Amino acid sequence: MSIIETEATLHEAHRDNHTHRDVNGGWLRPAVFGAMDGLVSNLALMTGVAGGALSQQTIVITGLAGLAAGAFSMAAGEYTSVASQRELVQAELEVERGELRKHPADEMAELAALYVSRGVEPELAREVARQLSKDPEQALEIHAREELGVDPDDLPSPLVAAVSSFGSFALGALLPVLPYLLGATALWPAVLLALTGLFACGALVARVTARSWWYSGLRQLFLGGTAAALTYGLGALFGAAI
To answer: Cβ neighbours of residue 26 under 8 Å, at least 6 residues apart?
Structure first.
């Protein structure tokens, strides 16, 4: 095999195997964690009420109220948080845009100095900075990435964050209530379905972590089950006291 063929083979192998998981989590991370939040909080809320020996109707109303309150709270919190972050970034981008307009030479020198600090030869760094600074919008994007760590063209949407948080939380919170809505008269079907959902969510989280699916699933099952058991005990304690 020739040297050229060997190098080509190595390059193909590197290309085929040099892949990474999505370390940012993409849509999966917020969706799964929102569902887990809804599952744990509503399961714990319902088991706490059930521990107080209250009626089935009270447990169902509590679960539905917890679903609605939690979903709206998550949506409002996400919208406010993301909107505030977006407004802050946009304000800083306006500051940077003004600096590029008023002091283009200083901003170009700043960009060149940044490349030099990363190991680029000074002359080459100045030439790269000069060429990149020809387009004001491109220069703004580069300065935003380097100085603020954001992409001006890929800012998060408050509405998307709110809707996704609402939906994922509501879906998770619905699982403990669902058996009652389908005619169940005991708590155990709701607990069983919720714990199954917790294990499934934990297993999905393994897609964005280095853990195995069964470890992540069992960990979430344990945490959610512990929360439900503790609130059930507290409900029983307070119910007996009242």
So the answer is: none
Tell me the residue type at 140.
L
Tell me the C-alpha distance between 214 and 202, whole Å.
Answer: 8
Where residue 160 falls (left for φ over 0; alpha for ψ -120 to 50; beta otherwise) is alpha
- Identity of the amino acid at 55: S
Q: According to the model, what pLDDT value does residue 46 have?
A: 96
Helices within 53-157 (DSSP H only): 56-102, 104-117, 122-132, 136-143
- Segment-wise mean pLDDT, segments of 10 residues, the chain, 242 residues: 48 54 53 88 95 92 96 93 92 90 91 90 92 87 84 86 92 96 93 94 80 90 95 88 61
Contact 226, 40 (CB under 8 A): no
Position 87: which residue type? Answer: E
Structure tokens at 124: 């080459």
Coil/strand/helix, residue 210: coil
- 196: number of Cβ within 10 Å: 14
pLDDT score of 4: 46
CB neighbour list of residue 10: distance below 8 Å, 6 or more residues apart: none
Q: Which residue has the tokens 């119910």?
A: 239
**C-beta separation of 48 from 232 below 8 A:** yes
Element (H, E) at 54: none
Kindly compute the dihedral angle of the four CA atoms of residues 52, 57, 60, 64, in this order, to the nearest 10 degrees: -110
Largest Cα span, the chain: 86
**pLDDT at residue 241 in the model:** 61
